[in-house]
Amino acid sequence: MIGGLFIYNHKGEVLISRVYRDDIGRNAVDAFRVNVIHARQQVRSPVTNIARTSFFHVKRSNIWLAAVTKQNVNAAMVFEFLYKMCDVMTAYFGKISEENIKNNFVLIYELLDEILDFGYPQNSETGALKTFITQQGIKSQHHTKEEQSQITSQVTGQIGWRREGIKYRRNELFLDVLESVNLLMSPQGQVLSAHVSGRVVMKSYLSGMPECKFGMNDKIVIDKQGKGGTTDDSGKSELGGSGKQSIAIDDCTFHQCVRLSKFDSERSISFIPPDGEYELMRYRTTKDIILPFRVIPLVREVGRTKLEVKVVIKSNFKPSLLAQKIEVRIPTPLNTSGVQVICMKGKAKYKASENAIVWKIKRMAGMKESQISAEIELLPTNDKKKWARPPISMNFEVPFAPSGLKVRYLKVFEPKLNYSDHDVIKWVRYIGRSGIYETRC
Amino acid sequence: MTDSKYFTTTKKGEIFELKAELNSDKKEKKKEAVKKVIASMTVGKDVSALFPDVVNCMQTDNLELKKLVYLYLMNYAKSQPDMAIMAVNTFVKDCEDLNPLIRALAVRTMGCIRVDKITEYLCEPLRKCLKDEDPYVRKTAAVCVAKLHDINAQLVEDQGFLDTLKDLISDSNPMVVANAVAALSEIAESHPNSNLLDLNPQTINKLLTALNECTEWGQIFILDCLASYLPRDDRESQSICERVTPRLSHANSAVVLSAVKVLMKFMEMLPKDLDYYGTLLKKLAPPLVTLLSAEPELQYVALRNINLIVQKRPEILKHEMKVFFVKYNDPIYVKLEKLDIMIRLASQANIAQVLAELKEYATEVDVDFVRKAVRAIGRCAIKVEQSAERCVSTLLDLIQTKVNYVVQEAIVVIKDIFRKYPNKYESVIATLCENLDSLDEPEARAAMIWIVGEYAERIDNADELLESFLEGFHDESTQVQLQLLTAIVKLFLKKPTETQELVQQVLSLATQDSDNPDLRDRGYIYWRLLSTDPVAAKEVVLAEKPLISEETDLIEPTLLEELICHIGTLASVYHKPPSAFVEGSRGVQHKRLPPRAGSGESTESPDVGQSGPSEAPPAVIPSQGDLLGDLLNLDLAPPTATVPSVQPSMQMGAMDLLGGGLDSLMGAGLGAAPAAMPASLGGAPAVGGGLGDLFDLGGGVGMPTGSYVAPKTVWLLAMKAKGLEISGTFARRGGIIQMDLSLTNKAMSVMTDFAIQFNRNSFGLAPAGPLQVLTPLSPNQTIDVSLPLSTSGPVMKMEPLNNLQVIYPPTK
């Protein structure tokens, strides 16, 4: 298991060092600094083996987090734990920076003592941790015996992510369907790969221990219902989705509150949600994706010192909808000496430091088209190596889900308290963003 | 003021000042001081001098302060064992506290203090905590048993903690179950033969129930533990699989990978014609693909594992090629791994797409990545015959770019393409020759020389080209020298009239001016062949070479099986068995896949667990890793005698026992030594027995006792070992491999205290008992010893394979 955990600043100075196992010595701290942080070459692997000791590291801005072990540990678990550690720290004191870590080092040690025991990760849900790691410090005079046992049963319990006795005057929930659409297109307009990775993020402000059921236009569910003939009318189109068609979900993963065995057998998504904001599910689709934009590049090399670039973008969604924050990034060769740009819409600028022409458009409606053309002057070089022509990338935001996912319902049951599903105020929002949206040129 | 101020270094009298502050009456001041101490400790300053003062702060109501003091204790108790005793009372008292959080804290911390005297006091509180009414205390105590076991295993057994721990598997609280499982698994690892985990259908059922309820981490512990269970039949195997599959939808990638491990392992037991088998295969693909949308570090772990899974069961991901396409801003380690998997998945159906991608990659910036992409194009050509032509023309395009490393890499792969499709693409040779001067890497030079030699009759100026390499013969690497020797001999046999001088020159360079035994031996063989029978020489040297087959770099099947059992762990990331990087007894047991209980699979041999995967292993270019498996199974004609080749560079006392010889046996398929050596050995059929028999494990016990034993040869010369001469041989008696040694004392003084140690070697050979030399060895005395060997030692592939290093320290 994890033998030790170190946090370094960008210079390689140790900010936190916690050793869990006897086989990890102080020299491990230095070994990592010398061999990884101060390594002359760029790091080629997130796992490094130095003198029979394995180091796992992740970097958050300038901060290095390293987990050390001498055993055959579960590597995936170590990385998941490091990410979790980052989440917990962020939840406690915001951004992970040298300043924040130094200011909270006592807290971090306390957390590390709690969420990692002898190198085995323990409950690391911030919701639960915050009930008893408070930095208030005074020995629990405030806690009555019941409160204490409530804390421990929550930390170790089956519903470790939610405490009992939560009360809201207004029961309300927000669902955000956040998708990022990824595309790799050949210069000829052939889709080389496209997929949507989506997340359903829920903010729940519900009293008690509500039992929730989430439904969407999942093809498997819809087909099953169609065949069975017993359509679930009550749930249909309750939350704004017109549900015109179903979508094929390649795969999905759920927050640990979702009962996976129930999903596996009935494909129904039921859970008791954590309080506040969390990620209910992640999913991935590859079929029938609506690609919001099409990029048509044209690059012509005129002699050895000039390039002509023309790029057309076409929006491909309902004219009534508006895309926002559109940005097209056209890479330029390293030996560019000057650029002239003409664009029909928005603003375009050559940014020498980024080796790219950046073209920004604030808003664009569906089924429209726009164009940019540029002349790039090149300095003559005797560099034999050809310019690699990185792909043209694009950023945007659209108010729909490119996968076609629709929320059909989210039902809330709380049998012990006297509020019903109808009393809960529900909000749904769809946002589609560009992930890696590239067209080769 | 904020806490970061504690990190700023201050002046000299710091320790003294801290001491005063620690003893201050004011609580706030005390706490500040302890914080300063911890900060100093973190940055590596030695603050152990403050031990008594810090421990004095332990008796406090302030939980935060208490935790800080505990942290200090864990760090320094070992260096101050006597003073650490001062803390015992507080611990014991805290273990009785009303607040469960404090009870747990005490037992948790106490387990981390590795001082024997404290450990004694730990037993009673631990026993109580294991039975505590509060689950939080019990789950902490469960882990504490593992801690205690690490310090004093005997104590844990004597105190009966193991039984209590086993009882916790039936605890009502899922987290307690998970931690108990984790602790037991760890303890079981250091007792490979104890039946500690004692998994049976009832306990498995309990674990599967807890699996649905515990935290994500607990699920990982349980799944990893489940993976070591061996179901009794295919039905049990299926029912476990059914209950594990829902985990594939968990948001935590480690849970997913551990579930994949269980499924991959238990699938072995399912009959292939079962419907469920097919369903399971289909269910595995989507979660594996989803892992690729995780953070890059996890993607890396996932890709390393997918690489194994694709080798074991290619059908799972065969339609998912696209997801392995490289993204422009993937980190380099992700890119390289994706490329590997792309080649493994390449098939006739998707080759066009793959090639288009590879061509893109070959123009990227990162040198390693570009090289690998170029190499991948070559491998596609070899793997998918229909694409060979397109691959070759792509490679030619790349050679035209004149980027140095691209050209060299392309030439190396084109050589392999020639080996696979002889007499098909020779038209490109002219282009290759144009780039001769730019080659500066040995591998590329060797490949080019091979091509020139192989096709000497079609290259008009082949003799000039080869001659140009000959000028700097001594500066070339062995690889190039060997290749040059063979190429010139080939050239001579093809065009004997013009090249006589050249061949003389290279033979004398190889045999007279070289220190390298391989080169010398090869030179002599050619020389003798040419001088005794040129016709035979022609038959041998220009013999038709066996075609190379498509898959390269496959992991050797037994290792692959073991790695599949370690999915998700470091072993699967390194592609090495745990014994290769874990010290001590932990993880040294070799895990195996369960034997396939196959209905309708009569073709399979019953000893699958031993000899590899059920599918006939594809023939592999025995370039690197695959000789071991062959050696253990094949009854090869062994070298006539074990040739001693004590290299001058060796350290005193370490010797190259079986050096030489075997690599030539294996040379048949080696690109580097085509057709040269094997034929020569084939001509002189070797005596049966010797090495081949030694490792003929299958026929082990029944071996006649009078089997062939090679005569002893001198392994270590007296002058190199302070007067101890060792000669020896290997024999097999009653199924046991023995090393027979004759030790001769050629020094002036008496030698005693003999010991022997084997370095890691290809066969896992290790002494089965100590070396028994009873008498002190007086000068000029010789004694014979026989050392029984076992093959259970750590395995590491040696170059050459049969290289066995034995350290034999004569201590006087």
Automatic annotation (TrEMBL), chain A:
It holds the Pfam family Adap_comp_sub. One of its GO terms (molecular function) is lipid binding. The lineage of its organism: Eukaryota, Metazoa, Chordata, Craniata, Vertebrata. InterPro entries: Adaptor_comp_med_subunit, AP2_Mu_N, AP_mu_sigma_su, Clathrin_mu, Clathrin_mu_CS, MHD, Mu2_C. It comes from the Eukaryota. Component of the adaptor complexes which link clathrin to receptors in coated vesicles. Clathrin-associated protein complexes are believed to interact with the cytoplasmic tails of membrane proteins, leading to their selection and concentration. AP50 is a subunit of the plasma membrane adaptor. The complex binds polyphosphoinositide-containing lipids. It comes from Cyprinus carpio carpio. The keyword Protein transport applies. It is found in: Cell membrane; Membrane, Coated pit. CDD domains: AP-2_Mu2_Cterm, AP2_Mu_N. Residues 170-440 form the MHD domain. The keyword Iron does not apply. GO terms for biological process: endocytosis; intracellular protein transport; Wnt signaling pathway. Adaptor protein complex 2 (AP-2) is a heterotetramer composed of two large adaptins (alpha-type subunit and beta-type subunit), a medium adaptin (mu-type subunit) and a small adaptin (sigma-type subunit). GO terms for cellular component: clathrin adaptor complex; clathrin-coated pit; plasma membrane. This is Adaptor related protein complex 2 subunit mu 1b.
Automatic annotation (TrEMBL), chain B:
It is a peripheral membrane protein. It comes from Cyprinus carpio carpio. One of its GO terms (cellular component) is endomembrane system. Its main location: membrane. Belongs to the adaptor complexes large subunit family. InterPro entries: AP_beta, AP_complex_bsu_1_2_4, ARM-like, ARM-type_fold, Armadillo, Clathrin/coatomer_adapt-like_N, Clathrin_a/b/g-adaptin_app_Ig, Clathrin_app_Ig-like_sf. Residues 582-622 are annotated as: Disordered. Pfam families: Adaptin_N, Alpha_adaptinC2. Residues 708-810 form the Clathrin adaptor alpha/beta/gamma-adaptin appendage Ig-like subdomain domain. Keywords: Acetylation, Membrane, Protein transport, Transport. The keyword Acetylation applies. GO terms for molecular function: clathrin binding. One of its GO terms (biological process) is animal organ development. The keyword Nucleotidyltransferase does not apply. It is found in: Endomembrane system. This is AP complex subunit beta. SMART domains: Alpha_adaptinC2, ARM.
